[in-house]
Amino acid sequence: MSALPPPGPPRDRGGASPETRRLVAFVDASAFYCSCERVFRPDLRDEPVVVLSNNDGCVIARSAEAKALGVPMGAPYFQIRERLAARDVAVFSSNYALYHDLSDRLLRVLERFSPDVERYSIDEAFLGLRADPRDPDEPTRLEALAREIRDAVWRATRIPVRVAIAETKTLAKVGSEFARHAPVPCVCFWRHPDRDDVLGALPVEDVWGVGRRWAKRLALGGTQSAADLAAMDDGDIRRCYNVVLLRTALELRGVSCLPLGEAPPPRRSLVRSRMFGTPLTDPGLIAKAVAMHAAAAARMLRREGLAASAVETFVTTGPHARPVHHGRAMTELPSATNDTLAIVRAARSLVGPALATSRVGSPRYKKAGVMLTGLGPAGQSQGSLFEAPVRERPELMEAMDRIARRFGRAAVVPAAQGTPDELRAVHAGRSPAWGMRRDFLSPRYTTVWDEIPTARLDVIDPARLGAEAEGAGGGLGRP
């Protein structure tokens, strides 16, 4: 019988063997919305850029140049319009079709580097990595890998990102903030010589998972920094707070408590709504908006393999409107379904009841939407004994989805949504009254055939091209 190997260090909670250490890379796109707008507008590379919220309401994204000018996050656009114009700040309406497509492309690049990729948000993702703890040069190799990830994302998408590697998700988030100020924003926070100083200087309210309410309580007890939180006694944390904060403290010590790839909880409801470009009183226009949201919700159900048992339609005025009215009406379906026509029909039938509940004047509605509840796996619902089940048309729905993927969502729609021209105007920001106001919408360069950018090919002297590239410091070649 062969001798047993000598005992090694215990396994960590991430499940890595003693010979390898499981680490986490956190990839965060820099000013993502602004960076997306710059992908097809390289003339804005070093110019201040801001992106506005729905209906061009307020600032929701700023480039570094806009931050340097003092443009505040969340500022109402109508209050700073003249100030932005005076500083030549480029202003864009939210172009979510472009942002989501570029986010998907970014994610596909990350999947080249690890089979374990977890999308955390539209501009953030975690990657699972392995490291050899016995190799003293491993941190250097990982930092080189971080730079390789950043360069690959840049070549494929022209989106600059920060990459931080550490033992846990929380430490990787801390490392990302540290990388924000590094000459090249790629850092291996594992065994980093400045790590203790960084944790000691990081205010506890800036730690991922610690909200303002907890931060105030922690400060009263003398816990001011991330290092202070990591040093707290486990029993004190459990006794005075809860297990969530204890996990955060453990993660700051390098103990993984938030593994990658945990399945999200099943969706229980689905809401689709949007503000109107201008307040509405016409029930016909409101019904078209409701039908559009219902169709979009049904499409999401099919994409996630779910079906809904109940439909609710709601309308609301703004909080400062006179009279104020919030109306809603709900109906249960005979059987759970994700059929677009059935859900649109049910949602439209509820518009009248939702509006009719107002008994004070003629409200000017600012928003309408649809909520689907009673969600469950498609094809597994139990029908009613006394009502005929909803007529299912899976072949028709599949055909509609395929056409939408190939030719756009406005190619084939229920007539209740309006004409295809009306819907194209909504999606392009040239909307009728029930669409959003998007006066600064950029083209959907990557998802709509009619808006693909036009490239011009000129014959250029190679010697002149090389001189210009050298003078420009590499042009677009580096992030």
TrEMBL record:
The keyword Plastid does not apply. Pfam families: DUF4113, IMS, IMS_C. GO terms for cellular component: cytosol. It comes from the Bacteria. Keywords: DNA damage, DNA repair, SOS mutagenesis, SOS response. The keyword DNA repair applies. Transmembrane segments: none annotated. PROSITE patterns: UMUC (PS50173). This is UmuC domain-containing protein. It comes from Rubrivirga marina.
